[in-house]
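Researcher: Next entry: S-ribosylhomocysteine lyase (Propionibacterium ruminifibrarum).
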Amino acid sequence: MNVESFNLDHRKVSAPFIRIADVKELPAGDVLTKYDVRFCQPNREHLDMATVHSIEHSFAECVRNHSDAVIDFGPMGCQTGFYLIMAGSPDVSATCELVERTLRDILELAAVPAANEIQCGWGAHHSLEGAQGAAAAMLARRGEWEQVMA
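Model: Predicted structure:
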């Protein structure tokens, strides 16, 4: 299939994990790497939408304090994780360190960034508590992130 994740057997992975989902070389020679940052075991658990929304806002804001290579951070429709798109060649270990630093930042937040109707299309639909709980759960299993398959 054309979508990389549709070719992944979701029954064989063991979340949480961070894996390379795609690498694109652009016409000018720049490289983009898309990482699958999976919080939940597919088809067994998922993040509620207020939590997804708040992780998206918080991570997208905080990660840019640590890296200028971040292109985008967005949720998966299945609510089990996110895609992190970075400029540059793949480096899973460095990306795990970046994700760890960013999740630790989320634990320190007093509010979800831009969670208001001026800066967000659904500013009332957030859960800082949910985002911090998911970040803490992901961090508690930090040693497993580079092991994708069960």
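Model: Note for the record: The domain at 9-142 is CATH 3.30.1360.80 (Gyrase A; domain 2).
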